[in-house]
Design brief:
This protein is an alpha/beta fold and about 220 residues long. Helix content is about 50%, strand content about 15%. The two termini are about 35 Å apart. Bound molecules: flavin mononucleotide (FMN). Flavin mononucleotide binds next to helix 1 and strand 4. Keywords: Flavoprotein, FMN.
Length: about 220
C-alpha cells in the first residue's frame, strides 16, 4: 500500500507544515504503508492553460513535472495534502497543482482512494484551508478521513499537538484503506456529482471527447 504526502510550503526544511506531513508519513509507515513526501515547490509545475486538452485527449498539453507526480498519486491508495495558510487559502504552488488536476475532478480519478489535510497558520483559520483541501479530495472522488492543523505563530507548542494528531491520522489512513471505510455524507456528494456533471460532459462531448468516453465506459451516462 502506498501513501503520498504533498508539501506546498516553499520553506523547505524550515517549514512547520512539513513537520506535520513527516508525522503523518511516520504514522502511515508504522501502520504498514510505503510512503513518499513530494515537495511540489521544488518542481517545475506550470499554471494550467485552460486549453481543455486533458478533457479532449486524456493528457495535458504541457510537459513539465506535473504528470510524474500525478502518476505517483494514481499508483497510491492514500493521499495527504498540506499547505500553510496563505491569506486564508492554500499557497499559490498548491493552487497551481490543484488546477492542473482538473481532469481528476471531471473523471473522479481519486475514486476509491483515501486522504486527509494538514495545515499550519500564523494566527488561525486553519479550518478554512483544511476544509478547502479536504473538499478538493472529495471533489476528485476520494474520501477524506480527517484533518490536523496548528496556529504556530500564536501558540508555538500547538505544532506538537497537531503533529501527534497527524501521526494518528497517518495510521488511521492505512486502516481506512484496508477496511474500505464508508462515509455516507461523502458518498452522497460523490453521487450528486455523478448525477449532475453528466449533463455538462454530454453537452461538451465534442470538445471533451476523452471525458465523454470515460463517463460512458464507467457506466455513468444517463
Ligand atoms: C504570503 C503569506 C501569507 C500568510 N497568510 C496568513 C494568513 O492569512 N493567516 C495566518 O494565520 N497566517 C498566515 N501566514 C503565516 C503562515 O501561514 C504560517 O507562518 C505557516 O505556519 C507557515 O507554514 P510553513 O512554515 O510550513 O511555511 C502567511 C504567511 C505568508 C508567507
Amino acid at each position: 500500500m502506498k501513501v503520498i504526502g504533498i508539501l506546498s510550503s516553499p520553506r523547505g526544511k524550515n517549514s512547520s507544515t512539513r513537520k506535520l506531513v513527516e508525522s503523518a508519513m511516520k504514522g502511515a509507515q508504522e501502520a504498514g504503508a510505503e510512503t513518499e513526501m513530494i515537495d511540489i515547490t521544488k518542481l517545475n509545475i506550470e499554471y494550467c492553460l485552460g486549453c481543455a486538452t486533458c478533457h479532449r485527449k486524456g493528457e495535458c498539453a504541457q510537459t513539465d513535472d506535473f504528470q510524474e507526480v500525478m502518476d505517483k498519486i494514481m499508483a497510491a491508495e492514500g493521499l495527504v495534502l498540506s499547505s500553510p495558510n496563505y491569506i486564508d487559502n492554500v499557497t499559490g504552488q498548491m493552487k497551481v497543482f490543484m488546477d492542473r488536476m482538473v481532469d481528476a475532478v471531471h473523471l473522479q480519478l481519486l475514486e476509491g482512494k483515501y486522504g486527509f489535510a494538514l495545515c499550519t497558520t500564523g494566527g488561525g483559520n486553519e479550518d478554512i484551508v483544511l476544509d478547502y483541501l479536504n473538499e478538493f479530495l472529495i471533489k476528485c472522488g476520494a474520501t477524506a478521513i480527517g484533518a490536523a492543523g496548528a496556529a504556530v505563530g500564536k501558540d508555538p507548542a500547538s505544532i506538537n499537538v497537531a503533529s501527534e494528531k497527524a501521526y494518528e491520522l497517518g495510521k488511521d489512513l492505512v486502516e481506512a484503506i484496508k477496511e474500505k471505510r464508508r462515509y455516507p455524507e461523502q458518498e452522497k456528494i460523490h453521487n450528486l456529482f455523478k448525477e449532475s456533471f453528466w449533463y455538462t460532459v454530454s453537452a461538451n462531448r465534442e470538445r471533451w471527447a476523452s471525458n465523454y468516453e470515460h463517463w460512458v465506459q464507467k457506466g455513468w451516462s444517463r
